[in-house]
Amino acid sequence: MTEIQFHTGVAEPLVHVMKLLRKAEAQGARLAVLGPAALLDRISQHLWSDDPQSFRPHLRLGAGQPPGPHLAPTPVWLVERLESVPADVERLLHLAGETAEAPPGFERFARLYDIVGADPASRLAGRQRWRHYADRGYALSHHPMDG
User: Fold this and answer.
1) Which InterPro entries match (predicted)?
2) pLDDT digits (tens, 9 = 90+) for 47-89
3) Which residues pair with 3 in a beta bridge?
4) Smallest Cα–Cα separation from 78: which of 13, 12, 127, 9?
5) Is residue 115 part of a domain?
6) pTM
């Protein structure tokens, strides 16, 4: 069953995502990042320019864009939908924003990081997702980022 970690009060999603990506990289884990196109584009750009001495391999796929088979080993997948992510990617980072629904297909991942913004609409949507997961018996943990 998927282990779900809620990271709440995240004022700077890009900074928080980079921290989680570095942690996953250090652990040798593969990760999919699910979110809106504009934020995924910013993350992709940051992965190219974050550290000039260190390339962070990643793949940015648009909605409905299939990856080539030679790309399957890529450690970081930036996607708008989960269908293209290989089955052996074990972690999902969900940048839901104001979306109250759980991402379809999340249960195939060993771990889900649900990132909740600091604004009231994101907090409300995060509470709704928490309830959804709790009602279905998922193991939940809360990690407040707002001090």
Assistant:
1) DNA_pol3_chi, PolIII_chi_sf
2) 987 666 767 889 998 887 888 888 888 999 999 999 989 999 9
3) 111, 139
4) 13
5) yes
6) 0.92
